[in-house]
Amino acid sequence: MAQFTRIEVATAMKETGMIPLFFSKDLELSKNVLKACYDGGARLMEFTARGDFAHEVFGELTKYAIKELPGMIMGVGSVTDAAAASLYMQIGANFIVTPVLREDIALVCNRRKVLWSPGCGTLTEIARAEELGCEIVKLFPGEIYGPQFIKGIKGPCPWTSIMPTGGVSTERDNLKTWFDAGVTCVGIGSQLISAAVLESKDYAGLTQKVKDTLAIISDLRKK
After folding, report:
1. Element spanning 19, H or E
2. What are phi and psi of 13, to 5 degrees?
3. Which end of the chain has less neighbouring CB within 10 Å, N or C?
4. CB atoms within 10 A of CB 7
5. For residue 165, what is the DSSP state?
6. Which residue, 57, 69, 68, 67, is CA-closest to 22?
7. How far is residue 163's CA from residue 189's CA, in Å, rounded to a whole number?
8. Kindly report the CA angle at 218 between 215 and 221, in degrees rounded to 5?
9. What is the 3-state secondary structure (H, E, C) of 81-136?
10. Cis peptide before 141 (omega within 30 of 0)
């Protein structure tokens, strides 16, 4: 069962401005990555459940977060159907992220008042997602559409909240283009939690990178 309401999750997304994206079959590695992100100031984690038995790792990771990392909001990405969404919500998912707009997922999430963020690529999809109760729309793949797409959407629909995933890096210039375009938050995967960090187990370096990235986002929002 979710530990946070969808309003609390949406607020955390808006306030922090960034969601780390990560997946590993290795539970201990996953715990270390999660704690490193938490120590760096991240308060959300999207576990991109793309492997076999991913739900088992996520369940244990969520228990760890509840016990050891107060205020850490655990969510699941790459969810492709309502059954999977229901399973992950039963084992503690506080938000569900999907690569496409699926109305069946909207229904099961709304029944439990759990935030869901569908991958959309057209204004029609975005409008439909909002009609179904979506708070923050995922723009995916972000690198295909780019910041100009978001500017175009925000013109006629300034109420729309958008989170691009893909094409977002930790460099200031890259982040500036997205936040200047009007994003609510960004999802960052391998550009933040890189293969090199995982191979070297440089968790202290990851903590610092998360901290630096959040500081850049905070500074950009002041201007």
Report:
1. strand 18-22
2. -60, -45
3. C
4. 11
5. B
6. 57
7. 13
8. 150
9. CHHHHHHHHHCCCCEEEECCCCHHHHHHHHHCCCEEEEEECCHHHHHHHHHCCCCC
10. yes
Low-confidence ranges of the chain (pLDDT < 50): none
Question: In terms of DSSP bridges, do strands 137-139 and 115-120 run parallel, antiparallel, or are they unpaired?
Answer: parallel
CA distances from 159 to 16, 97, 162 (A): 19, 20, 10
Look at the chain and count its residues: 223
At how many degrees (to 10) do helices 172-181 and 203-222 cross? Answer: 40
Q: Look at residue 46 and give its three-state secondary structure.
A: strand
What are the structure tokens assigned to 127, written together?
């409008």
d(CA 120, CA 107): 17
State phi, psi for 96 to the nearest 5 degrees. Answer: -125, 130
Instruction: Provide the token pair at 131.
Output: 């009609």
**Rounded distance, CA 86 to CA 41, Å?**
29
- Sign of the alpha-carbon dihedral angle for 165, 167, 172, 175: negative
For residues 99 and 140, is the Cβ–Cβ distance under 8 A?
Answer: yes
Say if residues 79 and 97 touch (Cβ distance below 8 Å): yes
> What pLDDT does 146 receive?
95
Contact 152, 174 (CB under 8 A): no
* Rg over CA atoms, the chain: 16
For residue 138, give both structure tokens: 């995922």
